[in-house]
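Dear colleague,

Following up on Tuesday's group meeting, I ran the structure prediction for the three-component complex that the binding team flagged. I've pasted the input sequences exactly as they went in, so you can double-check that nothing got truncated or mislabelled along the way. The structure tokens for the whole assembly follow below. Feel free to forward this to whoever is handling the docking comparison.

Inputs:
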Amino acid sequence: MPELPEVETTRRGIAPYLEGKRIAALRVRERRLRWPVPEGLEAQVAGARVQALERRAKYLLLRLDCGTLILHLGMSGSLRVLPATDPPQRHDHLDLVLEGGYCLRLRDPRRFGALLWCPDSPEAHPLLRDLGPESLSADFDGPYLAQVAAGRRVPVKSLIMDSGVVVGVGNIYASESLFLAGIHPQRACRRISAARYARLVGSIRQVLTAAIQQGGTTLRDFRQADGSPGYFALSLRVYGRAGAPCPRCGAPIQARRIGQRSSFFCPHCQH
DNA sequence: CCGGACGCCTGTCGGC
DNA sequence: TGCCGACAGGCGTCCG
């Protein structure tokens, strides 16, 4: 999926087409996403104005004057803005038709994405309520991460991918951040010093910021709002590069499953 | 409370 | 060439 950089890239790409615009119609071709698209949602949002497009974790929040649409891209979702008359293709499940002839179209082959309706404050929604701090915000810092880690015994990679700890660090960027910080992904999180956590926070920020600047990472499905791929795939140091030389020391990159997710690291540079 | 495993789906890729 | 299993960017839920 889209991790945080892909969702943020998408948000920035589609925001100009949405903010301040009125919704002419919602067309649902396939209701069976991660959760069913609520019955009657079409009537609920028709005619409403999009006040703002925000992001919390990997959720996009479309603030309407009458409530909030919560959109998630799952593993394979992408959003594009197209002329509303463009014929939908396979796996194009939703169109949010806007005044002026454009529509926002969701494509999601695996259907792990979601479109939900929240009539009141989305922060209180069960899916958003228990999320940790944003990874690029000031309240995600070294002392916070060290303190959270103290009570846990999972590998550090699982820790930073736990959305209750910090949001937005998915499988690709967890491996990349740990490489940059020189920390072995499987190291027990209680056996890492506060100083190294501070460094890890810096690495996460650096990796995510660079990835956003490159338009995210396209491995297969992901597309920016204009249809172009994300170019951060060219900057990946370890993810997907098992056997290739470490860009820092030349030793072969290792692959291993940690917490049911494939993980990549340099056995020489990361401890 | 925590941590680990599973399942949701479809598409693709590598090995035989 | 064809088939089959493994795996894929997430994450809620269940179980011990």
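Residues 1-3, 6, 34, 58, 72-76, 110, 112-113, 127, 161, 163, 170-173, 216-217, 219-222, 239, 262 of chain A lie near DNA strand C (CB under 10 Å from a C1').

Cheers,
M.
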